[in-house]
Design goal:
The protein is an all-alpha fold. The chain is about 60% helix and about 0% strand. It has one domain. The mean pLDDT is about 80.
């Protein structure tokens, strides 16, 4: 899921602890979507990418 939806394998981040931090952020984003009951992760990510203020409401 992280690789297909979030492009983890193509990430240019390779130094220090940054890859682990980015993986944790990606896992958190997926967990937030799943907790909100989202089934169409890719479509939902595209929707919220253009509406970041609405995305914050998913955390509540």
């Amino acid at each position: 899921m992280r690789d297909t939806q979030l492009g983890e394998a193509t990430s240019a981040v390779r130094c220090g602890a940054i890859p682990q931090v980015m993986a944790a952020l990606r896992n958190t984003a997926l967990a937030v979507f799943r907790n909100a009951g989202v089934t169409q992760i890719a479509d939902t990510m595209k929707y919220y990418a253009s509406k970041p203020k609405l995305a914050v409401n998913l955390i509540n």
